[in-house]
Specification:
Blueprint lengths: L6 H9 L10 E7 L2 E9 L3 E8 L4 E4 L1 E4 L3 E7 L9 E7 L4 E4 L11 H9 L10 E7 L2 E9 L3 E8 L12 E3 L4 E7 L7 E7 L5 E3 L16
């Protein structure tokens, strides 16, 4: 089947202006002529080809390249009652080097509804355990969970030495009710430099250190 993605959403992902890319990227059910499909989408700059690997069978499924900047999609048949099966992404960079990775947008939120309520009310007395950058293991996969409170932002990304400081790559999921933003980056370890790139509702984009960071650079440098 053809993609159900609009050109507007595709362009916003590629240009780094979409306010909540988790609505587009990762696994999403789509319907076509009464059938249910699973659309797996990924934005992978500086790559030439990508595949979805079914972890149960290790079967690679080629992803269609929808934009030359590195936007890919694979559409797989599924039952509407099914939980999306675990998968990984295999990518070939522009030099032909192969890498297998987990998809950040395939992982669920770390916050409970009660967390979101308390943080939104400013009454979560252990917010330091939720906000900032924390090591997590999600479904057996280790990585770092980033979370920041930015209620007046239209978009937030985490940028660092692990993604070439490219704000298009790892945009955070927005929790509309509380002003919180988060993303889990599988495979990432401690010790990387990072900042949050924040797009205000109006005004210029800014990069800010993490107020909950465990460590920070010595001034005049300011990365966490």
């Amino acid at each position: 089947m053809r993609t159900t993605l609009t050109l507007g959403n595709l362009g916003a992902i590629v240009e780094g202006t979409h306010g909540n890319p988790s609505e587009i990227l990762g696994p999403h059910e789509v319907n076509d002529e009464g059938r249910t499909w699973l659309a797996i989408r990924a934005f992978l700059p500086d790559t030439q080809q990508a595949w979805v690997l079914d972890q149960a069978h290790g079967t690679p499924r080629p992803m269609r390249r929808l934009h030359p900047a590195g936007f890919y999609e694979a559409i797989c048949p599924c039952q509407s009652s099914e939980t999306p099966k675990p998968y990984r992404l295999q990518v070939a960079d522009t030099s032909g080097n192969m890498t297998t990775m987990d998809d950040p947008y395939a992982f669920p939120t770390f916050f409970t509804d009660y967390d979101l309520y308390l943080l939104g009310q400013g009454r979560h007395y252990r917010s330091f355990e939720k906000l900032g950058a924390h090591r997590r293991v999600v479904d057996g996969v280790a990585g770092i969970n980033f979370a920041v409170w930015a209620p007046n932002a239209s978009r937030v990304s985490v940028v660092g030495d692990f993604n070439q400081w490219d704000g298009r790559r790892h945009a955070l999921r927005k929790h509309f009710s509380s002003g919180l933003w988060e993303i889990f980056l599988p495979g990432l370890s401690d010790g990387h430099l990072y900042k949050y790139r924040i797009h205000p509702q109006d005004g210029e984009v800014i990069e800010k250190a993490d107020p909950y960071a465990f460590r920070s650079e010595v001034p005049p440098k300011s990365a966490s």
